[in-house]
Amino acid sequence: MRLNTRYSGANKITLVTVLTVLLIFAGQVFGDIKAEQINAAALERTGQWHYQLDGKAGLWLGYYDLSRSLHLRNPKGEDRILVQQEPERTPSGLAMAALPEGVSVLWRQKFPTKSLYLGNSNTPENSPLALGEGTEPLTRLKAFNLKDTLHLLWYGEAGDPLLKQQYFVFYQNMKPGTGEMSAVERVTPGIYPVWAYDKARNFLVFSWIEDDKGSRIIAKTKRSDERAFGPAVSIAEVPTISWNFQAFRSGERWFVIWETQYEKNRLEGAFSDDLGQTWKRFGFDDLGDFLIGSLVVDTDDEGRIYIALSGSDLANPSPKQDVRLIRSADRGDNWIVTRPRPVAIGEKFRGRHPSITLGPQPGQVLLVWEDWRNLRGQLFASLSYDGGQSWKYDNIPLPQPSGINRGLPDQFSASFYLDQTYHVISQQPTDDSYGALNLFEVTFSPSDLEQIAATLPKPKPVELPAAEHASLTAPADLTASPAVGGAEGQITDPAQDALRQRVVGFWQRMIDKDYDGAYEFQDPFYRAKMKAETYRKQMGRIAYQDIKVDAIEIEGPVATVKTRVKASVPPFRAGTGEMISRPEQEINIMETWLWIDGNWYREFYSEYMEKKFTIH
User: Fold this and answer.
1) Fewer CB near the terminus (10 Å): N or C of the chain?
2) Which helix (H) or strand (E) holds 361?
3) What radius of gyration do the chain's Cα atoms show?
4) 401 membership: H or E segment, kind and range
5) CB 370, CB 427: distance < 8 Å
6) d(CA 222, CA 242)
7) Per-residue model confidence as pLDDT tens digits over 464-484
8) Is 204 exposed, middle or buried (0-12, 13-18, 19+ CB in 10 A)?
9) DSSP state string for 411-445
C-alpha cells in the first residue's frame, strides 16, 4: 500500500486574523450565521452529552447536568429530565438511536445493581426498560436502530474465571414496536465495544483482547440471516491500544483502525472485502510519532474516506496539539495525510477536536475544529468541493462574541448537514474558569463562509492608534507594526508603545502596592480561577522600586517583554521565628503579555509551581 503525505498551508499566513464584524450576542448573527443555546441546564466541564437526528431530521439532545441528572431535549426545544440523580439511581453513560420519530436513549445505573435502562422519547410516561441483567454493565454504550430493530452493544464486568477474562462485550436487540427482546449474547472478551454495520443488517463487532494466545485485534460477524455471531477472526497482533479505536464501512469494504505504541505511537488499521473473514493490514507511517487526542471518521459508499484527528507530534520538542486530515478517494487503497492548519499556526497555537461532515454533493466536505490561535477557543472551518484536494474556503474563523470560548467534544463528530445548512454543536464554557459549560448549535451555509472570507484583512501594514488608546490597539501581524516618526523625529512603534504603557502600568501598581490594580492586569483565565482577595494576600513580601522596559518582541497576540526592576525584601518574621530580609537589587524579568479581548494582559506564571492558567 502506498502512503503519501501532502502538507497544506505552505503559503505565508499571518498568525492573527482580525475580524471586523458586528456580533450581537442575544441572537448572534453574521450574515445568516446563528448560535443558539440548546441545553436548559449547565453541564460539567467534562459532562457527557450526545445528539441524534430522528427519521424526520429532528434534533434530539441528551446530556447530564451539574447534578448528574439525565436530560432529553426534543426538536421543539422542550427539555425534560429522564433520570433524576438520586442516591439509589446514579445514572451514567449515554447512547442514542434514531427512531422514525423520536429516539431511544440507553444509560446505566449502579444501584440497586449495575443495570442498563432504555428509554423511549415517544412514551415519556412509561418507566424505562431494564436490560443487560447479569452483565454488570459499565459506561461504554452503543446503540443504533435499523429496520425496526434496536441493536445495543456494551461491555461489562461479568467475567469468566475459566477463560481468565474479567471484561466482556455484550449484545442484545429489541423491537421498539412490540418490546420483544433477544437474549443477551456475550460476544467477546474485551473493553472496547466497537462496531460497523450496513443497511442489509450485517454488522461486525471488534475488540482488543489479551489471553494465552497473546494480545490482538479480533472481529466477529453477525450476518443478517444468522441469529448469532460467527467465530472470532484474528486481525492483528498488537500491544495495548488506546481508546482511539474505531470501525467503519465504505461500500462493501469494512475497516477497523486503532492507535498503539511500539517504539513510537502509530495509527494503523485493516480492511476486509468479504464481511470480516479475511483482513489486509495497513499503517499511516507518514503520520509520524503522533499522540492522538481525538479521532473521527466519515465516509460515503463511493469510496471517499476522511479521518480527522488531533494530537501532539512527539518529535517536536514542545509539541502543540494540532489537526491532521487523512483521506482516501479509492476506498483505502491509497491515503494522503494533510495538515489543514497552516504550519506556522500549528507550531505556536493549539488546535484540536476536529469534526467532519460530508455535504450533499460528491466530494463536498466540511472540516471544523477548535482553534486557539487568537488565545480563546474559537471554531474554524474549511470547506472543499473536491474531496479535500483543495479548499474553496480555508481556515475560516466562525464569529463569536468577545470574551467567550468555544470548543468541540473529543470523542465524536459534532457537525451535520441539514436543509442546505451546516450545523455544529459547540461546547461553550460558562466562564474562563472552565468549571461548567453550555451547548450551542451554530448554523451556517457555504455562502456565509464566503462572506466571512471576504472580510478577512489582507496582510498589509496597519497604522495603529496612539499609545494613549492602548485598550483599543491590536497587534496586526506576525511582527510588530511598522515604525513611524515621533513628535521629535525619533523612531517609535505604536504597537510596542501601547504594550509598553501596559507593562509600566502594571509595575507601577506593584511599586505603589496597589495589588487590586495589579490584579486587573493579569490574564482573564487566571482571574477566573483566582479571586482578587487571594491574589492580594499573596503579595506584599517583596517591595519594588523603579521599572525599565528593555525590549519588546510582538508576535501576533503574544509578546515577550524584558524588564528590569529593583526589588528588596523588608524585614519580616517567618513562621519559624527567624527574621528574613533581603537588600535591594536589580533583577531581570522575562514576561509574556497576551492580546485578549481588546487589550494586553500579563500571562500569570508561577515559577515556583511551574504553572500558568492560559490554554493556547
Assistant:
1) N
2) none
3) 28
4) none
5) no
6) 25
7) 444 333 333 444 443 333 333
8) buried
9) SS--EEEETTEEEEEEEEESSTT-SEEEEEEEEE-
User: CB of 256 within 8 A of CB of 203?
Assistant: no
Average pLDDT, the chain: 87
Quick: pLDDT tens for 136-172.
Answer: 999 999 999 998 899 999 999 998 878 889 999 999 9
Q: What is the DSSP string of 227-249?
A: SS----EEEEE-S-EEEEEEEEE
Assess whether pLDDT exceeds 90 at residue 584: no
**487-494 — which CB contacts under 8 Å span 24+ positions?**
494/463, 494/464, 494/465, 494/466, 494/467
Rounded distance between C-alpha atoms, residue 253 and residue 272, angstroms: 6
Least-confidence region, from 74-78, 182-186, 316-320: 316-320
C-alpha cell at 142: 452503543
What's the pLDDT band for 25 if we cut at 50, 70, 90?
A: very low
Q: How far apart are CA 359 and CA 300, in angstroms?
A: 10
Kindly compute the dihedral angle of the four CA atoms of residues 189, 194, 199, 203, in this order, to the nearest 10 degrees. Answer: -20
Burial 162-180 (b: 16+ CB within 10 A, else e): eeebebbbbbbbbebeeee
Does 460 score more than 70 pLDDT?
no
For the whole model, what pTM was predicted?
A: 0.88
Cα atoms in the Cβ-side hemisphere of radius 13 Å centred on 485: 3
* SS3 category, 559: strand
Strand order in the sheet with 365-371: 351-358, 365-371, 378-384, 393-397
Helix or strand or coil: residue 580?
A: strand
Question: What local confidence, expressed as pLDDT, does residue 466 receive?
Answer: 40
Query: Which run of H or E residues covers position 363?
Result: none
Average pLDDT for 254-280: 96
Q: Which three cell numbers stand for residue 170?
A: 455484550
Q: Quote the pLDDT of residue 124.
A: 67
Grid coordinates standing for 283?
499503517
Residue 471: phi and psi, rounded to 5, are -70, -10
Which grid coordinates belong to 451? 462572506
**Residues pairing with 397 in the sheet:** 380
CA angle centred on 373, ends 367 and 374, rounded to 5°: 115
Q: What b-and-e string marks burial along 369-378, b requiring 16 or more CB atoms within 10 Å of the CB? A: bbbbbbbbbb
Q: What is the mean pLDDT of residues 333-349?
A: 94
pLDDT (tens digit per residue) in 426-437: 999 999 999 999
